[in-house]
Design a protein that fits this description.
Layout: E1 2-5, H1 16-26, H2 29-35, E2 52-55, E3 63-65, H3 71-84, E4 87-91, H4 97-112, H5 115-119, E5 131-133, E6 148-155, H6 169-193, H7 200-203, E7 210-217, E8 227-232, E9 238-243, E10 249-253, E11 256-259, E12 267-271, H8 273-278, E13 288-291, E14 298-305, E15 315-316, E16 334-335, H9 336-346
Parallel strand pairs: 3-4
Antiparallel strand pairs: 1-2, 4-12, 5-6, 6-7, 7-14, 8-13, 9-12, 9-14, 10-11, 10-13, 15-16
Length: 359
């Protein structure tokens, strides 16, 4: 089904920590390397642990029409996709195509604006209204990813508008509000898919916290040596992904890396770790990654329904209605904040993060 390309390099010893720090201190990210005309991938980005696999055929993710009048069928399709694949796409989701396109252009504009303007937002301080950097786990991952990101927590307490990047401020606020409405609908449908009351997941706060991440994957001169995003699962409850036409997303399905080509007008939805945990493994948080590409920049917007940067006290564990003597709880309880914080500290090291909560 797939052709596998493997590149094995022998890297001479070097001071990796020093090179990571030097890269970080430029405050210009991977985009800065590309703007400088770099021809070779720096050693800190070379990924020797993953094979770059290009699927010879496309795997069609289920496409769910949220405008359907057959609610029972819609719920059943969402249940099947969330249990078996962990990913699905939605159309007729209520977010206008013009808003989606403007959002992608806004992210592109942020990453392509003058480097001195970008630098003003560059930080690793998670208390900032806007956190722009390259690789949140730069200092503790085995290899850096060919990607830059800016992040803001847009709900329930969004930053003052004047603190958001001017180049994409208005559309970021508009798009985030639209995603919150979509999330409310998706959690109602997922509640029903689990056999719960429609408001169940909303009532326990799954749809309240929204993190907005604007990713940029610049064109890579040697895409066989690095990854745009190393394999990982998402830590939160649910992710809403808007991707441009370039593609590069792959999901691990039946031990095969499968391409997820962009579908015009569709959004990609995937189950996160916290959702797998509270569903007691009924729904699946599946590994996925982004391959680097000579085309670029690829831009995407990932909106995570997860946890706020402040430590809320609500504790989550397997939903009591979903456990029984025959299906006992498989995870210990945690706050969403503690799990997200653990995930941030761990980074993308290839080890499933949910093992941290396994009983």
């Amino acid at each position: 089904m797939a052709n596998v390309e493997t590149t094995t390099l022998t890297l001479a010893p070097y001071d990796r920590a020093a090179e990571l720090k030097a890269f970080d201190l430029t405050k210009s990210g991977v985009q800065g390397l590309v703007e400088a005309g770099i021809q070779h991938v720096p050693r800190i980005f070379i990924n020797q642990s993953e094979t770059i696999q290009k699927a010879s055929t496309f795997f069609e993710l289920p496409v769910i029409d949220l405008g359907s009048t057959d609610r029972a069928s819609m719920v059943e399709k969402i249940r099947a996709a969330s249990e078996n694949i962990g990913f699905f796409q939605v159309v007729n989701h209520g977010i206008p195509l013009s808003v989606m396109n403007e959002m992608l252009q806004g992210v592109r504009s942020f990453h392509e604006q003058d480097v001195e303007t970008r630098k003003r937002f560059y930080t690793r301080d998670t208390s900032k209204a806007v956190i722009y950097n390259s690789n949140f786990d730069l200092y503790n991952s085995p290899s850096a990813n060919w990607r830059d990101t800016f992040l803001s927590f847009m709900a329930p307490s969004p930053p003052p508008p004047e603190e958001l990047p001017e180049v994409c401020r208005d559309i970021q606020i508009e798009y985030s509000n639209q995603v919150l409405k979509l999330g409310s609908l998706l959690f109602r449908l997922l509640s029903e898919a689990l056999g719960l009351k429609p408001n169940y997941l909303g009532d326990i706060g799954c749809d309240k916290w929204l993190a907005f991440l604007g990713h940029c994957y610049p064109a890579c001169p040697q895409p066989d040596l690095t990854m745009g995003g190393t394999k990982h699962t998402d830590a939160g409850f649910l992710t809403v992904l808007l991707q441009d036409e370039i593609g590069g997303l792959q999901i691990l399905h039946q031990n095969q890396w499968i391409d997820v080509p962009p579908t015009p007008g569709a959004l990609v939805i995937n189950i996160g770790d916290l959702f797998q945990m509270i569903s007691n493994d009924k729904l699946k948080s599946v590994e996925h990654r982004v391959v680097a590409n000579e085309r670029g920049p690829r831009v995407s917007v990932a909106c995570f329904f997860s946890s706020s940067p402040a430590p809320p006290t609500k504790v989550y564990g397997p939903i009591k209605e979903l456990v029984s003597d025959d299906n006992p709880p498989k995870y210990r309880e945690t706050t969403a904040h503690d799990y997200i914080r653990y995930s941030f500290s761990k980074g993308f090291d290839g080890v499933p993060r949910l093992l941290h909560l396994k009983l």
